[in-house]
Amino acid sequence: MPFRILVVEDDPSAADYVINGLRQEGFTVEPATTGPDALHMATSEAFDAIVLDRNLPGIDGLSVLKALRAAQKDTPILILSALAHADERINGLRAGADDYLGKPFAFSELHLRLENLLKRRGAKSAETTLACGDLSMDLLARRVTRAGRSLDLLHREFQILEHLLRHKDKVVTRTMLLEQVWDYRFDPHTSLIDTHMSRLRKKLDEGFDKPLLHTVRGVGYRLSESP
C-alpha cells in the first residue's frame, strides 16, 4: 500500500519537482499551495507524512506546523525552506518539525530523509491489534470480532476495515479508499466502493445495538462509536 504524502509548496516549479519525483518513487501525493489549505487538509485527512514549505501565502509554514502540533497531530513533517541558517533550522525543529531540509536540495536527499521518517513512524506505530468499541481486529491472526462474536470478512473487506480502524473517528474519503486499498486512481463515485461498504456494514452492524460504520454524505465514511 503506497504511503500518502501531503506536499505543501506554492512555487509551481518546486512543487512539480517534488510531486513528480515522489510519484515516480511510488508515493501517493496530494498537493497544497497555501497555509490555510495545508492546515485544512492535514487536520481533516490522513497522511503518512507532510513535506512543508515555510514561505506560504495565507499562513506561513511555521505557523501551520505549530497549529498541527497544538492539535495533537503527530504526522511526520519535513520542512523545506530557503531559510537554511542554523538558527532557522533550530526554530523549525523546536516548533515540532521532524526534519529540516534547506533549498536548493537534491531530490535523492529529500527522498532518503522522507523514507527515514516513515521508517521511524512505522517502528513506533507497529501494532498487532486495532479496536473501536467492542470491535477488535487481530492483525497477526487476521481475525475480527465484535462483542466476542467472530466476523467472517473477505480479504478486501478486511483491508477496508483495517484502513478505517487506523483512522478511527476520522472521515475516510472515497478517494482515499480507492488509493489506499485498491491502489486505483479513477472516479471515486464508482459503485465498487458502495458494493463493498454495503457488505461490510451488514457484517459489522447488523444484530448489534450501536452502529459503528457511518456514512458521511457526499464525502466518505467514518468508523466510530459516536454517531
Q: Can you give keywords for this protein?
A:
alpha/beta; Rossmann fold; 12 strands; 227 residues; 2 domains; single chain; Arc Repressor Mutant, subunit A; four-stranded antiparallel beta sheet
Name the overall outline: elongated
The CATH architecture of the largest domain can be named as: 3-Layer(aba) Sandwich
Helix vs. strand class: alpha/beta
Output the radius of gyration: 19 Å
What string gives the helices and strands in order? EHEHEHEHEHEEEEHEHHEE
Work out the helix count. Answer: 8
How many strands appear in the DSSP assignment? 12
Percentage of residues in strands = 15-25%
Low-confidence stretches: none
Largest sheet: spatial strand order: 2-1-3-4-5
